[in-house]
Amino acid sequence: MDSILKFCSFFFVAWTLTIIDTPNVAAVIFRPSQWGLAHATFYGDESASETLGGACGYGNLFTNGYGTDTAALSSTLFNNGYACGACYQIKCMQSSACYRNVLFTTVTATNLCPPDWSKPSDNGGWCNPPRTHFDMSKPAFMKIAQWKAGIVPVAYRRVPCIRPGGLRFSFQGNGYWLLVYVMNVAGGGDISGMWVKGSRTGWIRMSHNWGASYQAFATLGGQALSFKITSYTTKESIIAWNVAPSNWQVGLTYKANVNFH
């Protein structure tokens, strides 16, 4: 009888420890927002070459996976760069230029549409605060409206970003300063905070540089690097362990095997 009681006690303790030690792996799921009202224009031509680069720092949007379905946001939406990577559904409305058979198109925020104070906000200064405005690539705009319209009223909402694979980290800087551009962010698409950990350091909080870039003033050469990233919208944090090997170099991009949802 004693042996049975001892076995039961051991089983209960082991089961309890298993429950305690099992992490909660349920991911935070980003949900679409409510619809809002705005206006949309376009910049560049059908090649979308003028959209390359941009204030978010994504560089070549074609090779980095963003393509031509992109938009520059007015500063009201851009939020000092914290909206970089966010995804929006945009549908044309209340204009004869709208394509009636197109419900919406989806774009990623990759650039800033700066104010033009030399023009009235309702006549050319479309991105002047507090206007909510999307300056889309021409190919993206042409999916919802006739380009000759120039500007159309739209409805928009935030939606989850669908990205294949994990986060990508593009390195710039030098031996004492690491500047990292975070790309291919799924879920909310946006980043509010970032930390780096070398194989011989603790977690070092990185400061927001601009757009989708974060920086650390630290000597990290010769160490494998891991990153902790927090979503601006959902506040979820994920860790990408050992993203870059100890012989990492600036000018290269490193891929993680984790992402938001």
Automatic annotation (TrEMBL):
Compartment(s): Secreted, Cell wall; Membrane
A cellular-component GO term for this protein: extracellular region
Domain (Expansin-like EG45) ranges: 53-166
Alphabetically ordered keywords of this record: Cell wall, Cell wall biogenesis/degradation, Membrane, Secreted, Signal
Predominant location category: secreted
InterPro entries: Expan_Lol_pI (IPR007118), Expansin (IPR002963), Expansin/allergen_DPBB_dom (IPR007112), Expansin_CBD (IPR007117), Expansin_CBD_sf (IPR036749), RlpA-like_DPBB (IPR009009), RlpA-like_sf (IPR036908)
Location of the Expansin-like CBD domain: 176-256
Keyword Cell wall biogenesis/degradation recorded: yes
Record's keyword annotation contains Translocase: no
Membrane topology: Peripheral membrane protein
Family named by the database record: Belongs to the expansin family. Expansin A subfamily.
Job description of the protein: Causes loosening and extension of plant cell walls by disrupting non-covalent bonding between cellulose microfibrils and matrix glucans. No enzymatic activity has been found.
Name of the molecule in the record: Expansin
Source organism: Quillaja saponaria
